[in-house]
Write a structure and sequence with these properties.
The complex is a heterodimer of chains A (729) and B (170). With 729 residues, chain A is α+β, with helices and mostly antiparallel strands. Chain A is 30% helix and 21% strand. In chain A, strands 10, 11, 12, 13, 14, 15 and 16 form a seven-stranded mixed beta sheet that branches. In chain A, strands 24, 25, 26, 29 and 30 form a five-stranded mixed beta sheet that branches. In chain A, helix 3 packs across helix 4 (96-113) and helix 21 packs across helix 22. Helices cover 46% and strands 20% of the residues of chain B. Classes of the chains: A alpha+beta (729), B alpha+beta (170).
Chain lengths: 729, 170
């Protein structure tokens, strides 16, 4: 009998929608299970082939869990703010909201056809004011908090003010920027502006100066992964490193917890390793070197993991962005240094870290004094040192560090080996192995003994102290763009001031154009009367990751107008049991979300300290390719079964013109001009194609549009087909 | 399995051991594979089970209902359709995942090589727990045995349980 899949699939899709079959309600009689897909950015191209793979897998799992008696929460929504809609708006004048709405409708239609068991009553869109109210709320909460290192948690800023009033800056151990110590008397004598500036150094959401990737043509700051080889990925415009005052999130304060709490998560080792590397914990020491530019002397603090190698320091290196560069560049060297800085500014940090072979640098003209030997060593500037790592200045030990070694060889600087018998004529000796020599009081110790011994010595002599360093940076949170969440902040007499919760959501204003203003201000500068009580409102908007950092919480309680998530809903659904998405989010979204969640946990708004218990990365989708066989030096194609009788080349053919491995000859001739006059050697009157399962890609002509499969074979077939193509991970 | 030319043919007859074995092998496999996110191997297991049940001409509700529940996460539309055809009013989405009974999947039979005066002539499938005497009697009664005895007399039948039957003929 015939199976009319079109009618039957439509029938059940309508039934599920009308019946609200998959609507999830709190039900304490059943165990909960929360299955989440990483929500898509609704691009103009529609759902691409990679999406359904993960969605089908999560849907199978959700349906399975329902059959096993779990109360399953399986929601879907849209990560709807973003650059493509804004770029499109700039080009066409079409409001991004309109484009986004249209794209969402298309995504929804495509998803509905595949028969997913989503609870659509919980849909969220990050660009919806009722949703971004809670993104703005979280920002204000972070603005109103500081991080207590001793208690290892976020606390209200009012408690910090009280502590300053009672005991000055030394009364707290807080995660903070550069703050000059002050007493309680100092505090009470400070003006409002001075107090505000100091508190800003402690806030978890704060404004501070930082080096950013600035793209003048786009008029905005770009994230590292939006820049390649000095040009913007979108549009190919030049990008430079620039210091700017930006809103930032003090993610670094949470580095230790983000690292430790990875242990309990059911994630793959490779993903955990990516996060560990990103967080980049290193244990070592901070040490003070006296530096002098010939006129003035300073104490320069550096971080090292190898305090045992201080006797081998033959030079120092500053990051090009380091504030030491200005202080330590001598007049004689100024021209050379300036030239070097211009060159270095064009590269992103990631590129600088990746470029290990090319050695570049310039001498600052200043010298530092080795605190252990009293020896004088030159201070250089090089891009292989990153401003954000430690203090942006390092001590260089070329005998035992490969990058220092390359630099020393290139610029002809001395190399002093510190381990007995090690050979440093060709390369450095990086292993932490062997017996120390040339190292004064450390001679004769093993390296493993020498590291703590050196730190003890340094601490005892007041030259430095033990320190744990993290590579994880604070997140830059301002974008000079239109299509994002406005900051609910205004500037009252130069002091950044939060709006009250009653003012939220602060909705995006209308603008005449989606471009920066003529004076170079962000697009919100074009809005009429963008003020609050007569004071100017912040003009930048929040970055893409703002809206995706807590969306999983909103799904638990999407219509709550009083809270991001109510206590009852949070207490029942708790966390995501299974999260499915691509590895491209391993160090972005998955760090920010964990940070955001931990912050809300500290403040008592959520009950779980981690958001995603189990995480699966769906792999690249596999495709079934088809081949034709062209006889060498001819335009004659021989069918699969006969190909061994000829010398042939295997050529990928578009799977959309092959049916059941049989080639549509006319379609083939029309496919590409080269094949217009192709001849065929057939078997039984048909051309049979060869096939293979490979990565799905345009170049292999095996990309299948999910709509096409749904039309021809039905949704059930698409689901089975995608699952059958290969393992998920 | 559900329909033939004349319509719906699912019956309430009791399932056979072979049918139960196919089903329960599938239940076990699908459950483990889903838990391990190994969906491609689960899909293969469906193909194997459906082929086996098709060969057995299985049209029994006792087998087909759980089969459809197992299939429903993967192919929910056709599963709902068949579920409805089986007389259910509620969506299959909240049915109960079938319980896996290992006992059904255990191999119950074994293959005896039957030889005559030391020469193996044919094999026969018999229950694993069949007694020596019953095997003896069963083999004596086989048509093929008559053929190889061919007018002679059976002196003795030696049974090695689970393995060999040797018929001594004179």
């Amino acid at each position: 009998m015939d199976y009319n899949f079109k009618e039957i699939e439509r029938k059940w899709q309508s039934f599920w929608a009308a019946d609200q079959t998959f609507k999830a309600e709190i039900d304490s009689s059943k165990p909960k299970y929360y299955v989440l897909d990483m929500f898509p950015y609704p691009s103009g191209a529609g759902l691409h082939v990679g999406h359904p793979l993960g969605y089908i897998a999560s849907d199978i799992y959700s349906r399975y869990k329902r059959l096993c008696g779990f109360n399953v929460l399986h929601p879907m929504g849209y990560d709807a703010f973003g650059l493509p809609a804004e770029q499109y708006a700039i080009q066409t004048g079409q409001h991004p909201a309109v484009t986004t709405e249209k794209n969402i409708a298309r995504y929804r239609e495509q998803m509905d056809r595949i028969g997913f068991s989503y609870d659509w009553s919980r849909e969220v869109r990050t660009c919806d004011p009722d949703y971004y109210k809670w993104t703005q709320w979280a920002f204000l909460e972070m603005f109103g908090s500081w991080y207590d290192n001793a208690a290892q948690k976020a606390r209200p800023i009012s408690e910090l003010e009280a502590a300053f009033a009672a005991g000055g800056s030394d009364s707290v151990d807080a995660a903070c920027g550069d703050v000059k110590p002050f007493t309680s008397e100092d505090w009470s004598s400070f003006s409002d502006k001075e107090k505000a500036d100091i508190l800003m150094q402690y806030r978890i959401a704060y404004q501070g100066e930082t080096a950013v990737n600035w793209c003048p043509a786009l008029g905005t700051v770009l994230a590292n992964d939006e820049v390649k080889e000095g040009y913007s990925v979108r549009g190919g415009h030049p990008v430079e490193q620039k210091k700017m005052t930006q809103w930032q999130l003090r993610v670094s304060a949470y580095a230790g917890r983000l690292l430790e709490d990875l242990e309990d998560l059911d994630w793959t080792d490779s993903l955990k390793d990516m996060q560990r590397n990103w967080i980049g914990k290193s244990q070592g020491a901070e040490m003070v070197f006296k530096v002098s530019n010939g006129e003035q002397e300073y104490d320069m603090t550096i971080f090292t993991t190898r305090a045992d190698t201080v006797f081998g320091v033959t030079f120092m290196v500053l990051a090009p962005e380091s504030e030491w560069v200005e202080k330590l560049t001598t007049p004689e060297q100024k021209a050379a240094v300036d030239e070097y800085l211009v060159m270095a500014r064009k590269k992103t940090e990631r590129e600088r870290m990746a470029e290990t072979r090319k050695v570049t640098g310039v001498f600052s003209g200043s010298y530092a004094v080795n605190p252990l030997t009293g020896g004088k060593v030159p201070v250089w500037i090089s891009e292989y040192v990153l401003a954000g790592y430690g203090t942006g200045a390092i001590m260089a030990v070329p005998a035992h560090d490969s990058r220092d070694y390359a630099f020393a060889r290139h610029f002809n600087l001395p190399v002093i080996p510190l381990i007995e018998g090690c050979d440093v004529t060709e390369s450095s000796f990086d292993a932490k192995d062997g017996i120390m020599c040339n190292s004064g009081f450390l001679d004769g110790l093993t390296v493993k003994e020498a590291i703590p011994a050196a730190i003890d010595y340094v601490e005892k002599h007041g030259i430095g102290r033990r320190k744990v360093n993290y590579r994880l940076r604070d997140a830059i949170f301002s974008r000079q763009r239109y299509w994002g969440e406005p900051f609910p902040m205004y500037f009252k007499d130069g002091i950044a001031t939060p709006m009250t919760l009653a003012e939220l959501p602060l909705e995006l204003p209308e603008v005449d154009k989606f471009l920066p203003t003529e004076t170079g201000e962000p697009p919100l500068g074009r809005a009429q009367d963008w003020t609050y009580e007569g004071y100017p409102i912040e003009l930048s908007t929040m970055p893409g990751f703002a809206g995706s950092s807590a969306y999983y919480l909103r799904y638990m309680d999407p219509h709550n107008s009083e809270a991001l998530v109510g206590r009852e809903a949070d207490g029942y659904w708790r966390d995501v049991d299974l999260y499915i998405g691509g590895t491209e989010h391993a160090t972005g979204h998955l760090i920010y979300s964990r940070f955001w969640n931990k912050f809300l946990y500290d403040k008592g708004y959520v009950c779980e300290k981690e958001p995603f218990r189990k995480l699966i990365n769906q792999g690249m989708i596999q495709g079934r390719s088809n081949f034709v066989y062209r006889i060498i030096n001819t335009n004659t194609f021989v069918s699969y079964g006969l190909k061994d009788q000829y010398e042939t080349t295997e050529i990928h053919v578009d799977v959309n013109i092959v049916h059941n491995d049989r080639l549509d000859l006319d379609a083939f001739r029309n496919w590409m001009p080269d094949y217009a006059d192709a001849d065929f050697i057939l078997e039984d009157g048909e051309y049979i194609c060869g096939w293979a399962v490979e990565k799905m890609s345009k170049s292999m002509f095996n990309v299948v549009n999910p709509d096409m499969i749904c039309d021809t074979y039905g949704a059930d077939t698409l689901r089975l087909y995608e699952m059958f193509l290969g393992p998920l991970e | 399995m559900f329909y033939d030319r004349d319509g719906f043919i699912v019956t309430d007859e009791k399932a056979s051991a072979d049918e139960l074995k196919s089903l329960h092998k599938l239940i076990g496999k699908v459950r483990t594979d889903i838990e391990a996110f190994s969906f491609n191997t689960a899909v293969s297991a469906f193909m194997i089970a459906v082929n086996e049940l098709y060969d057995l001409k299985c049209n029994k509700r006792e087998i087909l209902e759980p089969l459809i529940i197992l299939l429903s996460p993967f192919a929910p539309h056709i599963a709902e359709e068949l579920w409805e055809a089986l007389g259910h009013k509620e969506s299959i989405s909240y049915a109960e995942f079938p319980e896996y009974v290992e006992a059904y999947t255990v191999e119950n039979n074994c293959t005896y090589a039957v030889s005559f005066n030391g020469k193996t002539r044919f094999t026969v499938e018999l229950p694993l727990d069949m007694s020596r005497e019953d095997v003896d009697a069963h083999v004596r009664g086989l048509e093929q045995t008559q053929k190889y005895v061919a007018g002679g007399n059976i002196i003795k039948v030696i049974v090695v349980p689970g393995k060999i039957v040797n018929v001594v003929v004179k």
